[in-house]
Amino acid sequence: INLRRGMYPRQTIWLVLSSRILVLTISLTTPLIILISYINQLTLQKFLNNSVYNHKHIFKELNILNGP
Fold this sequence. Notes:
transmembrane helix, membrane, transmembrane
């Protein structure tokens, strides 16, 4: 009976500890994920803007080649 009684607090401590670690990990990784996605969005936007600009430039060149 004493052994059983001694086992439960250890389990609860482990449970509390693991849940704290989980919460800490999530709270640390969430801003990181948000930051990474934001950076990816920025680079994607930059890439899209560049490609649009390049296409416009190419079309201008084609128009110049084709004449008015």
